[in-house]
Amino acid sequence: MDIPHHRLRNQHISGAAFEKPGEAVKWMGAVQAQDYLGALWAVGLRTENATREVIEKAIAEKTIVRTWPMRRTLHFVAAEDARWMLELLTPRIVAGSAGRLHRHLGLDEATFARSKRLFIRALEGGRQLARGAMYGLLERANISTEGGRGLHILCRLAQDGVICFGAREGKQPTFALLEEWAPGARTMARDEALAELAGRYFTSHGPAKLQDFVWWSGLTVADARAAIKMAGPRIAEETIDGQTYWLPSSAPPVKRGALASYLLPPFDEYTVAYKDRSAVLDPSYTRRINPGNGVFSPTIVMDGRIAGIWKREIRKGELIISPEPFSRLTAPEMRALAAAASRYGRFIGAPLAL
């Protein structure tokens, strides 16, 4: 089986794109989003005729929510999915970090409870506040935000389903109450949520292995196995090169077309959502895309494989793309790369220099 091209198709990087950003995010289950501008492009890649403004409009219209649903990492999720994902995935993370936060930062349950009351009073009625204003609320109540305490408080209360990110205020993120920002967010029984999460992951990210799902979701191996079993007919098991993979059960065969290249943002799901990335990346280049300290570089995908990294710069209103391929590109590959760069230029609305 051609794993890279199946993943490109199932992630909707190749083939048909979604009409609306919210549809793309819902299909993916979650889109990693600690790099905000990169995450806009991750959604834009999977949305037809998207621009950066289109994705931000979907956020402002509350169809997409940015929060910390898994692995203590920021993700975009569909607004309707925010609550059940948080309820399923964050309690284990919260319990695992509670002792460390108390020992090293003095953050105990009483502090989180006080912070929660402050934020609810300040944000209720549809108000949104930037991070600096949220920290100001805490400081005026003698709750220190120094040494990373402020960010940990924001993260914890988002994991508890109290707050989430709102629309940007200029270039600054804001925060809102989750129940007001996403009033239609659903809750699910635990088994239903496990089945839904596995179904979403393997239909959008498959072919993928159990270990990939454990890495992406943060579930225990036992819960991940149970989730796969409960996902039922939505996903199918297949042995590829002696290893067990799951993928969407109804997916038609992949038809490879002309050579295509894609410029992926940092932390794109095509690279970051798998424990084992060897199907799309020569392991000898791992440090080029993942140099450490939680960094994932923007990548060049060529014919399904990661073929290099790239950088961008805006200079005097012009977008400058600087590719760093792992090996010399052929003339057809250069043309494919130029087409990918042009697509990104249209997304951000700037003339391109490659």
Task: Describe this protein's structure.
With about 350 residues, the protein is of the alpha+beta class. It has helices spanning about 5-10, 20-30, 35-45, 50-60, 80-105, 110-125, 130-140, 150-160, 180, 190-205, 210-215, 220-230, 270, 285-290, 330-350, and strands at about 30, 65-70, 75-80, 130, 165, 175, 235-240, 245-250, 260-265, 300, 305-315, 320-325, 350-354. A five-stranded mixed beta sheet has the order 9-10-11-12-13. Strands 1-3-2 form a three-stranded antiparallel beta sheet. Helix 15 (about 330-350) links the parallel strand 12 and strand 13. Helix 3 crosses helix 4, helix 5 (about 80-105) runs antiparallel to helix 8 (about 150-160) and helix 11 (about 210-215) crosses helix 12 (about 220-230). The mean pLDDT is about 95.
Describe the structure in brief.
It contains 15 helices and 13 strands. The protein is α+β, with helices and mostly antiparallel strands.
Features:
alpha+beta, 13 strands
What is the topological layout?
Blueprint: H1 3-10, H2 21-28, E1 31-32, H3 36-45, H4 52-60, E2 64-70, E3 73-78, H5 82-105, H6 109-123, E4 129-130, H7 131-140, H8 149-159, E5 163-165, E6 174-177, H9 178-181, H10 190-205, H11 210-217, H12 221-231, E7 235-240, E8 243-248, E9 261-264, H13 269-272, H14 286-289, E10 299-302, E11 305-315, E12 318-325, H15 331-348, E13 352-353
Parallel strand pairs: 12-13
Antiparallel strand pairs: 1-3, 2-3, 4-6, 5-6, 7-8, 9-10, 10-11, 11-12
